[in-house]
Amino acid sequence: MPRRWLAPDFFTDEKMKKATIPERLLGAAIIANQDDDGRLRGDPASLRAIAFLYDDYSLDEVRAMRDHLTKVNPNILVYENEGEEYIQLKKYKRYQRPRYYHPSKFPAPPGWPFEEESNQKVTEKQPSSNHLVTLGEGEGEGLDLDLDLDLDKGKGEGEGRKPHPTPSPAASSKEILERLFYCYEKGWGKLPGAKISAQLRDLSEKLFAAHCPLDYIDQAFKEAANLNKYSVSYVRAILLDWLGVERSPPRE
């Protein structure tokens, strides 16, 4: 999961002085475990697992803490969809700056999106029998972040807009390989197995031979993520098309 951070004013927020210490810990856990759309599971069992793993709070106690927290901090919404409870942070961008955006797997709450010029697209999973559980109303303060995710999208592999590389010295084969692994691990949040590692090494050889700019690699992984195509083969197709290199099957 991408890293999240707490703004310093989380600890001095006037609203949070009405929350108990365990409720503040729960609030921090909610921030740390949100997805890129500011959502997470909101049922007491899930919240107890992420905030109170080493404590003996009952599910009823966790539910009471959650519900009181939503009253004192209107940034936190609890909503129900088809019998499942979820949490939405209304002003979530202050806590995150994802390098590659991953759409939420959870349904959106009523009223989504809450922030103007959102840097995320609405998840394709639409709400159904959706209603709010949260009682409090209000707005928190957010920080708009420009993540430059509006790439042109083509209909086929590698048909997106070709980026303009930043002038820089030619990358070495080691630098290209390191960038590929970095984008896969840090950008997509995955650890490559033996097969993926072999595909990345094979791709690095082709990119080095074609004098691929490192910027191309960044943009190719970003475009694949935007289209929900988390595949080395897809990234390979994008890069080889941009570089004008004839494709051949990736090495197994």
List the helices and strands and how they pair.
Blueprint: H1 21-33, E1 39-41, H2 44-51, H3 59-72, E2 76-81, E3 84-89, E4 130-132, H4 173-188, H5 194-209, H6 214-226, H7 232-243
Antiparallel strand pairs: 1-3, 2-3, 2-4
Helix pairs in contact: 1-2, 1-3, 2-3, 4-5, 4-6, 5-7, 6-7
Derived from helix and strand composition plus strand pairing, the structural class reads alpha+beta
Low-confidence stretches are: 116-128, 136-159
Helices, by number, come to 7
First and last CA, distance: 28 Å
How does the overall form come out from the CA principal axes? elongated
What is the string of SSEs from the N terminus onward?
Answer: HEHHEEEHHHH
How is the largest sheet built, in terms of strand order? 1-3-2-4
Helix content: 25-40%
The number of domains: 2
Strand content: 5-15%
Radius of gyration: 21 Å
Mean pLDDT score, rounded?
76
Please summarize the sheet with the most strands.
Answer: 4 strands, antiparallel
How many E strands?
4
What do you see in this structure?
With 252 residues, this protein is α+β, with helices and mostly antiparallel strands. It folds into two domains: 8-132, no CATH class; 151-252, no CATH class. It is built from seven helices and four strands. It has a four-stranded antiparallel beta sheet, with helices on one face. It is elongated and about 60 Å long. The chain starts with 20 loop residues before the first helix and ends in a 9-residue tail after the last helix. The model is unreliable at 116-128 and 136-159 (pLDDT under 50).
